[in-house]
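Objective 1b. Sequence-to-structure analysis of Flagellar motor switch protein FliN-like C-terminal domain-containing protein.
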Amino acid sequence: MNTGKDDWYWELYNSNLSPEMKEIFGYLYPTKQKMPSMLSCAIEISINRQSAKGFISMPLLAWKKIFLHSNWEINRAIINSHFIYYLPLLLSSTTLPAGMIQSLRTGDILIPDNQFFSPNGLGRLKIGNKWIYLQQSTAEILTFLVIHNKVQDMESTQSDANYPEIVSISSEDVSEQRQFMVQDTDFPDLSGIPVTVTLRAGTLEITLEQLHSLGPGSILAFCGSTPGYATLYYAERPLAHGELVDIEGELGLRITRMERF
């Protein structure tokens, strides 16, 4: 504690603190001693109709004790509740060789292996960290009834061991590679490159306020697609359009029109 002729002032200062302030900060006093790991923050305190702003620096351990001791609440940032959020109705996805995608033709039937919806309109849609379980209300219009929602468990990301090893390349290797590229004029075969495509049917337009209140019994209406039809996408680029078909309980796409790519 900082001792000196001003001690009387801080005794008086702390004796006049409100009970609410004492509960949060305890006994306050200044110090000229350099403390490790100091964290400085702007602070605003409101009690009843009175408020005050200031600047305070404390060691990290002191902040930790304050946060653990007092009943703090998150002061959520103000957002535009009328901001419109766009979300495609993702029916399924799959990964195919680039050559197979290029060979798709009208009349082909594609059955993606990652299915999010069944042929009878029952499925799930991921919004943020939630899975929204839906049931299509009617076959005539693209509306769905929310029957359940579930927060997705946080899972650890892939470890570095799952990624390709980074190999250092010397300047000699680069020189040899350049010579090889000059000598070999044939373009390499890229038909085996894996490409992830998605099957979508329409887009949901919903405000953040509506999204926050989403729950069982809510009705979601998707626009931009005819019921029973869907589009095959690579990223945001449409590749093919077609009719949704039931293939032994799996949702498939019978291609009726191809995009040029």
